[in-house]
Amino acid sequence: MLPGSLTMHLSPSPPLLQALSLAFLLIGWPAFAQAPPSPAHAQPAVPQTFDPQGLNEREILDHAKGLLEQKRAGESLAILESFLETASDTPLLDEAYFLHAAALHATRQDNQAILVLKQLIEEFPVSPFTDDARLTLGRLLTQSGQLNNAITVLKTTLTLSPDSTTRLKALRLLRDAYEKKGDYASAIKVTLVEIKQAEETERRDLLDYIKGLILQKMDERALGDLLERFSSTPPGDLAHIRLIELHTAQGDEVLAERDIQFFLQRFPNHPYAQTAMALLQSFISKIKAHQYVVAAVLPFSGRMKPFGNEVLNGIRMALDQGKADLGPNTIGLVVKDSATSPTQLLHEFSRVLKEFQPIALIGPLLAKEVKLVAELPGPAEVPFITPTATLADVRQFGRFWFSTALTTALQVEKLVTYAMEDLGYVRFCIVFPQSAYGQQLSQFFQKAVENNGGEIIAVESYPKGTTDMTASITRLKDKDLSLYGEMTLIEFENAEERLVYSPGFDAVFLPGKPADVAFIAAQLAFYDIQVPLLGNNGWNNPRLLKWGRSSIEGGIFGDGIFLQSPDPQLQQFIRRYQERFGGVPSIFAVQAYEAMGVILDAIKKGATSGLEVRNQLFIRHDLPTLGGLTSFGTEGVLDRKLYLIQIRKGRFVQIN
Fold it and tell me: Which CATH class is domain 408-559?
């Protein structure tokens, strides 16, 4: 049993505390860590030669400590546990806890040692032993695999301890915990702090440690995480170099060329720059040696980096297939970073068009970038395909502009067409989120319904995170009752009569995020609006199923990708993507795959120039996509398949 805390205790003398710290905290705990373990189930007997009678508490603890130093941990443990059973009001309780934890560790009872150290820290937050207890606890948690807990304890030590030596020890232990966790970027970040506090003689070893992690342990993903933190400062330079080496060794010249471009932009005066430049020229020559070149200008840094990577993955998937069909020397791919200033972005587009003379260009991703690039003076006759910019009309920028994105207009038009032609709906209400995107969805829905001869009964909006839709729903019902809705007097089994509202419309268009949709759907049901709900691709989230439950049953929405689709062509793409990149594809990867796919198919059908690719994209109605053969519309947007999805018994089910 562990006694309760005391409000007062005597501090040990400096020599004693120093000896305890050395014995318990330095690497390996040499004084007693190698003592022969006692069986966990047996309590070692106290030797007959030791009699605590007549000894004061200080002498008993000194004797227990001496046994630890003599590697007689079992005997020490018995003395300490006997001491703690009887000395409930001793001023030496914090020290006794500390020695008790040490004896438990020496007898391989680390779980118990962890509990004792936690109690010491909780009961004596300002004890002379507390810093060392936290360090020891962090070490034991790391050794036992409780890495997140170890990291928390050691970070707390760094925050609370004013002692520089303690902080340096905490940094070392924290570095080890991060390394064991596999979070090498954080381990390096901690080591850099450690370098600033370490002695000059230790700094080279710490730098070698960082180098070893980068060169020997970090894979491509870990190196990318490191570059997010140190994009243009050391050790980002070494991470860049390692990525160049990895991609070169893998024969992935697309990524190697991209990595070299980044390195030279960020470290132009680096000793490796000359080697990087020579490699770059070699890669550029290889790209130009292909019969045709496709360029991709995408974001590979900043907040848009994940989307740029997804798009590049989709392009590379299509390129793999294209090389298999057309030959390895037919198509070369050059990539450039669009995450830069508007002036530099225009320069990159102009330079890639002039230097590589691509047969087509994929990008940019954002609508504002499309508008900027469209202002380039005298553009070459090269088709530009944006895979993600949701502009309803890209042909406004010229006859060489195309889009494979799922635009808001396309998504809504196909949903409305299905609701009216296949389900026979005619009248609708709209409840949309108060945002620019929500306003756009509402406007496109109204236009699509009216173009198909339908009628919008009422339109209401809601703020993000709304908790009360009473006023909006009341207005909606009042408007409907003035037109087609009815109030019917119903007699229930208990003879009670009540007016029940019967909507005069067929469905409610309710786009938005899962939390808002689930709440509003429940509110609509509460106010007797029992009609089908229609949504946007923001519904394609398992959280909606969890939160919406019965109130969204039967609801229908559309999306450009549905991972559970039974479509064999889409499933084959998903499997190939997972094998290549280790994750599931996003809609951005799909749209990029199709952008590259239609370019490659145009080449396969005989196109030998950008103009000829453009002409095929302009007139053909058999362009291959994952959703089947299709064409670009008059606005330059691909008439892509919309996967229509219904909620049935708490599951998403494709219905087209």
Answer: alpha beta
